[in-house]
Amino acid sequence: MTHPIDIIALEKRKPALFLGLVACGVAIVGMQWTGRFLVGDISPAGIVSFEFSSNVDQAWAIVQSWERMGVILWAELNIGLDFIFLLLYAFCLSLGMVMLSEKLNFWKGLSWLPIIAGGLDAVENVGMLFMLNKSEGAIWPEIAYYCAFAKFTLIALSILIMLLMSIFLISRRRI
After folding, report:
1. Cα–Cα dist 101/108, whole Å
2. What is the CA radius of gyration of the chain?
3. Quick one: which of 96, 137, 152, 172 has the most CB atoms within 10 Å?
4. Taking a C-beta distance cutoff of 8 angstroms, is the pair 82, 125 a contact?
5. Closest to 86 (Cα-Cα) out of 164, 144, 20
6. Largest distance between two CA atoms of the chain
7. pLDDT tens digits for 134-159?
């Protein structure tokens, strides 16, 4: 099976990674800026508190507190920016893993992990938008919670794999 990164010519991968990382930085700044309005007593970590609200009561308490604070639009905007960010981080992590895999002549199948994480992030975002728009589905907080947990696990695993691959590459050059 081919990898989506394979459509990028080898000589274009470093510039693509650089531009992707810059765009990730811009998206992070935007999400931090919009997310600052979401911090409150019930949501001390802002949108992350909402992502990890694992039951209906907790999720609705956050939504109601944001309604009282008048920041629902900021939450929706933050989630909208996250839809852009998930494409960017999935691309950058996957591209980085493919580039390292090719240098090490290693299996690049693990570079699908960030893409799977991005898909989980999208499902999580849809769940949070349903909750913000008062969908009566009691399952949405659990879906968002488990998707967030799996997403963060896959991102951490991807970064760890890249770190280990980088260490191996550096140590191989010294031999």
Report:
1. 6
2. 18
3. 96
4. yes
5. 20
6. 62
7. 776 678 899 999 999 999 999 999 99
Note the pLDDT tens digit of each residue in 90-102. Answer: 999 999 999 999 9
Q: Write out the DSSP string of 1-43.
A: ---GGGGS-GGGHHHHHHHHHHHHHHHHHHHHHHHGGG--SS-
> Are the beta carbons of 31 and 54 closer than 8 angstroms?
no
C-alpha to C-alpha distance for 63 and 128, rounded to whole angstroms: 10
- Rounded CA-CA distance 124/147 in Å is 6
For the chain, the domains span 10-174
Q: What is the pLDDT of residue 3?
A: 86
Of 136, 94, 130, 113, the residue nearest 6 (C-alpha) = 94
CB within 8 Å of 149: residues ≥ 6 apart: 52
Return the closest-CA partner of residue 38 out of 53, 57, 26.
53
Q: State pTM to two decimals.
A: 0.92
Question: Which residues does the chain have with pLDDT short of 50?
Answer: none
Residue at 75: amino acid letter: A
Question: Residue 44 corresponds to which tokens in the numbers above?
Answer: 């001390």
* CA distance to 51, 66, 101, per residue, from 127 (Å): 9, 17, 34
